Amino acid sequence: MTLRSHAGMGLLMTAFASAALASPAAAVEAPVIVPLQGLEPVLPMDAPTVATGVPVPMPGAPTGFQKGIGSLPDVALPSVPLTGTLPETVVAAPLPELLKGSEPGRALFSSPHSEMKAATPGAVVGNPVEAPRGNGLAGLPGLAKPQIGLLTPVLSGALDPQLGLAPDAG
Could you give the CA distance from residue 148 to residue 16 in angstroms, rounded to a whole number? Predict the structure, then answer.
């Protein structure tokens, strides 16, 4: 590698490290407003509104590499932890007027920002060789039976949705 490619690789690794160390509070989300106004001609009331966002997960460092003394690592495909914040979601639907002259308001379903943690699946492969038995073959290691396993994906967090009535803003 030339000096220029070493410098470029250093800059790339610095950018990756700074992105990995960014705090979850600085995580970005893409706002999404679902356009439901096209339903108004067929509904007997105003169309509901749905406002939410798309979370942008932040990957962490892969976990699970454990190197034994004189052997290969047990984890062949490590789990990658992801952290992110589920965005605030608000669904508001007007309530129909049941009694003439009444002001029923709107039904609101909201869920505030929620911290979520996840981990991708991984794979475990046992060591394919055994320690030498010392009975011939000049101390060469023997082959072991293949042992393969999967690490399950993980998702944890807490949601706090709320459902209620609100007075009509109009």
Answer: 31
* Residue 52 Cα to chain centre, angstroms: 16
Q: In the 8-state DSSP scheme, what is residue 45?
A: S
Give me the DSSP letters along 69-126: TTS--SEEE-B-EEEEEEPPEEEEEEPP--STT----EEEEEE--EEEEEE--EEEE-
Cα separation of 158 and 108, whole Å? Answer: 20
Phi, psi of 5 (to 5 degrees): -70, -30
Give the model's confidence band at 59: pLDDT under 50 very low, under 70 low, under 90 confident, else very high. Answer: confident
b/e string for 137-169 if b means 16 or more Cβ within 10 A? eeeeeeeeeeeeeebeeeeeeeeeeeeeeeeee
Q: pLDDT tens digits for 33-52?
A: 888 888 888 877 788 888 98
Where on the phi/psi map is residue 70: left (φ > 0), alpha (ψ -120 to 50), or beta? left
The confidence band for 153, taking pLDDT boundaries of 50, 70 and 90, is very high
Q: What is the pTM of this model?
A: 0.54
Of 69-73, 144-148, 150-154, 159-163, the one with minimum mean pLDDT is 69-73
- Are 146 and 91 in contact by the 8 Å Cβ rule? The answer is no
